[in-house]
Every structure is written in structure tokens, then in C-alpha cells.
Amino acid sequence: MIKLYSHNVWNKAPTAWRNKIIRKMIKDMDADFCTFAECGPATIRAGEAPLPLLMADEYTELCPDLSGANFTPVFYKKDKFDVIDSGYHLYTGLNDANSKSVTYGVFSDRKTEKKLAVASTHFWWMADSEKDNLQRLENAHELKELCDNIIKKYNVPVIIGGDFNNGFNADQGDEPYRKMLDMGFSDIRITAKETTDVLTHHTEPLLKDDGTWENTDMPVRNLDYIFTLGCGITAEKFDILISPEALVSSDHCPLAGYFEV
């Protein structure tokens, strides 16, 4: 079983308290891979408890030379997988802080020798005009081209986790999501043998005077997804974490995907 934890970890300071909660949820899940959005160099990666440092006992980051600028990293269990290939793509067009991007890796399981690719992404977010929607559609096309190239070169399935900034109840609508389905991406919310109808995005947690955060609002829209592309993979389970810890860790809930390859 391959386990993926996917989370927009919210580029908002202070982060130390939230980072520790995120690390605990990853540990509780015993995730094989983690795909993050908004993993800001000056927030999530900084301060007294940077998330990459909290994860360093079990996980390694792909493309570590880009850690000072990469908002969409992939982390993997360093004792379980070998890296065959890895890369980073900054989306063309509209971008903010160069945070809208894709990081990907092709991996081999050291025990089973089974191979797969994992990618983390974040699409353009604004919803002011049609140009914003067109930008998200362009993000989707660039992601499809990248994944197609991976599949063609390595003959592996690809798992993609991220914040796609569109979907059910979203201010941005859902056209890019529907386009991705048309292009062959599979939403594991739909394809998994066990799934949920819980949504992914809620109001921002509030900072308390003691440095902790509070939130009791449940998610009301879908912005975040786990997709697969290619053959040779089965989604066994899809889940959205909505524990009290999950609801204060970010304005996005963590997604959990379980797969057989």
C-alpha cells in the first residue's frame, strides 16, 4: 500500500505551532509521500520549527537545491524509496511569488521494486476575470504535458496532489477541474473503492494571544484534489482529515490517498 498525504499548509506566519500539528498528522498516517502547497520559504520553512526540519528524521525533499524558492515540494520516505528522476516546473503566465508550480519525482520501492511517479502542484488562484480562469486551464495543460512525458519515458503511473483552486462551491468555478477529467486525469474521490463527501477548504484559522490557532468551521468548498494518470494503479481509499487538529493546521484540510501499484 502506498500512502499519500497532500496538504496546502498555508503560507501564513507564525508557523511553528501549526507545523508541529502537521508533522503529527503525517506521522499518524505513516505517509510514504507528502505533497505540499504554500510551503513558503519565509513561513513554513522558517522560524523555530521549520516543517522540513521536523520531517528530516524520516523524509527527504526532492530537488533540495530549490528549497529556498519551491512552494510545492514533494517529500518521500528516504529509507523506503530510491529516486530515479526528479524535476520542477514553474507555470508560465500569471504567478505570485513564483509559487504556482509542479515538483515531481519518479521512484522505485526498494522492497518491491515497483515504480511510480508523484507530483505536487498549485494552480493560479484569483477569480477576478476570465483571464484567471484561462490561466488555470493553461496550468492544467502544462501539468498534463509534464505527466505525459513522465509516463512516456518511464512507463509509470503518476499520482498528483495539490491545490487546484477550482471545484465544487469555489468562487473560481470548476471548468479546469472538468477539463482535467476530460484530459484523462482520474479524481480518486470518484475512483477510490472507499471515499468521502467531505470538502477541503474552510475559513482561515484565527491566531490567539498565546500563539496557538483556533477554528471550528468545517470545509465548504473543494479546491484540493488527488489525481492519478496512467495505468497500473488502483486507488483504494480517499479521505479528508477533519479532526480538531486538522481544522486548525491550515485553511485547507489534509487529503489522504491510499493506493496499490
Which outline best applies? globular
Overall pLDDT metric: 97
**Count of β-strands:** 14
CA-atom Rg in angstroms: 17 Å
Helix content: 10-25%
Strands in their spatial order, largest beta sheet? 3-4-2-1-14-13
Order of helices and strands: EHEHEEEEEHEHEHEEEEHE
Poorly predicted tracts of residues? none
- The fraction of residues assigned to DSSP E strands is 25-35%
- The tally of helices reads 6
Describe this structure in words.
With 261 residues, the protein is an alpha+beta fold. Helix content is 24%, strand content 30%. It has helices at residues 16-29, 51-55, 130-154, 175-182, 188-191, 244-249, and strands at 2-8, 33-37, 59-61, 74-77, 81-90, 101-109, 115-122, 158-163, 186-187, 206-207, 213-214, 224-229, 234-240, 255-260. Strands 3-4-2-1-14-13 form a 6-stranded mixed β-sheet. A 6-stranded mixed β-sheet has the order 5-6-7-8-12-9. Strands 10-11 form a two-stranded antiparallel ribbon. Strand 1, helix 1 (16-29) and strand 2 form a beta-alpha-beta unit. Helix 3 runs parallel beside helix 4 (175-182). The protein is globular and about 50 Å long. The mean pLDDT is 97.
Features of this protein?
261 residues; alpha+beta; six-stranded mixed β-sheet; 6 helices
Put the structure in a nutshell.
It is built from 6 helices and 14 strands. With 261 residues, the protein is of the alpha+beta class. The longest helix has 25 residues, at 130-154.
SSE order and pairing:
Blueprint: E1 2-8, H1 16-29, E2 33-37, H2 51-55, E3 59-61, E4 74-77, E5 81-90, E6 101-109, E7 115-122, H3 130-154, E8 158-163, H4 175-182, E9 186-187, H5 188-191, E10 206-207, E11 213-214, E12 224-229, E13 234-240, H6 244-249, E14 255-260
Parallel strand pairs: 1-2, 7-8
Antiparallel strand pairs: 1-14, 2-4, 3-4, 5-6, 6-7, 8-12, 9-12, 10-11, 13-14
Helix pairs in contact: 3-4
